[in-house]
Amino acid sequence: MGQQKTLREMQTEVDTYISQFKEGYFSPLALTARMTEELGELAREVNHYYGEKPKKDNEKEKTIEEEIGDMLFVMICFANSLNIDLQEAHDMVMHKFNTRDRDRWTKIDE
Q1: Which residue among 18, 73, 76, 83 sits deepest, i.e. has the most Cβ atoms within 10 Å of its Cβ?
Q2: Is 76 exposed, middle or buried (CB count within 10 Å of its CB: 0-12, 13-18, 19+)?
Q3: CA separation (Å) from 13 to 20, 55, 84?
């Protein structure tokens, strides 16, 4: 589809896109509501593919991939609006999982 992008490159790309509009980023509360909305749409798609609720004949075909992309876009907007570097946030959480939670789950090689 395209070349691999880092989280920082994605944040820059989204910022360049949003910066062309006078409105700029939505407020943190509005972005939280947007994330909730997008999560609901993702949940609906997952339910259609893996759950007990098939799509209606007149429902538009969407994919889980598309809905995850929408969630990622809003998450990047949220991080950008609060000046959060997602690479740093990711590194912090991976450190937590690799230290505090390192023995929480059964390793494959055990």
Answers
A1: 76
A2: buried
A3: 11, 34, 15
